[in-house]
User: Which sequence fits this backbone?
């Protein structure tokens, strides 16, 4: 199971049996989750990992059929039987649907997955060098969904939403961001040499939201200053969120680890995907103290559903990220290298990257590169 980031370890020589929950969700989630399964099934035997899989339900389409977006049984199986999980995609209606709320948001809360970790990394020699990790607080901010609509005195409608930032949630997300920065420093590779000194950039809007974002900023800084021996090697930075967006696109190479409240982290991580060509290559992991769920950053993509051209790379990288947070860094590295080799060769790629290959052709090519 997941340990603190600083205690990641490779697998032992003995065979290790791991049970992984597979939650395809909606749309192309059903097409890309098999990619994660195929990668795990084809990992080199030297790692001594044996995988068992359990198919689980969740999603908007399930809600339309049953009235439930996240069955209790799915949560029960994840908590009681699984070592990790992969989540595909979820459709998000743009208008209010009575009784419906996002299953992935609910799953994060029920499983205690308080961090969404999204690495955004370019392949060496392709485009502009980018190697950052966006660490997004996963449980609060405007995403607590405490909203109301009422009529003002003049009869017009008013909508209000509560933005909640707590010291406890901010403390744990700050610690995770600093731990990730230290971990990345210990395993620097070619592109990661952009950052000779690890840094964490705290992103906020405390110049306007002095109470809520002000608390986020203050706590992140306090955690850093309270641990001088542990975090001494990390450069502490701050960035107002609007200027963060500007600098992220103008100077992406200057950012190492970025930590942000829920809403800003959501926007920044999707925007950062543009730096590496497509949401189809950007992974994420929903992480808590005892569990991790790999989740590609793309949505359910109904426009390409069923065409066999969805990009599986985000799911494959999310699978590696899940393994990394479970403590299996060496097989995760092999998966990352296989994906990078596929992208660097620039021959077998899906249409979102300018190619004409199918989902299965990309999966087969990456599987071939694992050994």
Assistant:
């Amino acid at each position: 199971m997941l340990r603190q980031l600083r205690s990641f370890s490779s697998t032992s020589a003995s065979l290790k049996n791991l049970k992984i929950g597979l939650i395809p969700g909606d749309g192309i989630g059903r097409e890309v989750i098999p990619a994660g399964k195929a990668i795990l099934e084809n990992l080199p035997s030297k790692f001594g990992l044996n995988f068992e899989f359990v198919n689980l339900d969740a999603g908007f389409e399930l809600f339309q059929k049953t009235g439930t977006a996240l069955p209790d049984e799915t949560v029960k199986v994840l908590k009681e039987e699984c070592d990790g999980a992969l989540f595909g995609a979820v459709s998000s209606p743009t208008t209010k649907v009575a009784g419906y709320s996002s299953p992935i948001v609910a799953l994060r809360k029920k499983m205690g997955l308080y961090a969404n970790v999204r690495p955004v990394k370019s392949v060496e020699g392709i485009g502009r060098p980018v190697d950052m990790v966006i660490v997004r607080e996963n449980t609060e901010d405007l995403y607590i969904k405490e909203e109301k609509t009422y009529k003002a005195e003049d009869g017009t409608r008013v909508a209000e939403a509560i933005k909640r930032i707590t010291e406890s949630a901010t403390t744990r997300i700050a610690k995770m961001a600093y731990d990730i920065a230290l971990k990345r420093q210990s395993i620097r590779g070619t592109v990661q040499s952009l950052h000779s000194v690890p840094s964490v950039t705290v992103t906020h809007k405390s110049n306007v939201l002095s109470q809520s974002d002000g608390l986020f900023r203050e706590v992140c800084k306090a955690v850093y200053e309270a641990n001088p021996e542990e975090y001494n090697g990390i450069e502490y930075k701050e960035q107002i969120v609007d200027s963060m967006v500007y600098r992220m696109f103008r100077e992406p190479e200057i950012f190492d680890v970025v930590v942000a409240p829920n809403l800003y982290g959501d926007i920044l991580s999707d925007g950062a995907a543009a730096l590496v060509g497509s949401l189809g290559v950007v992974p994420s992991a929903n992480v808590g103290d005892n569990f991790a769920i790999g989740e590609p950053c793309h949505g359910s993509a109904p426009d390409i559903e069923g065409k066999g051209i969805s990009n599986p790379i985000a799911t494959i990288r999310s699978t590696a990220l899940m393994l990394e947070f479970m403590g299996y860094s060496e097989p995760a590295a092999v998966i990352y290298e296989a994906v990078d080799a596929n992208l660097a060769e620039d021959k077998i790629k899906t249409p979102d990257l300018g190619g004409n290959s199918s989902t299965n052709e990309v999966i087969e090519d990456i599987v071939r590169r694992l050994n």
Notes: The longest helix spans residues 167-186.
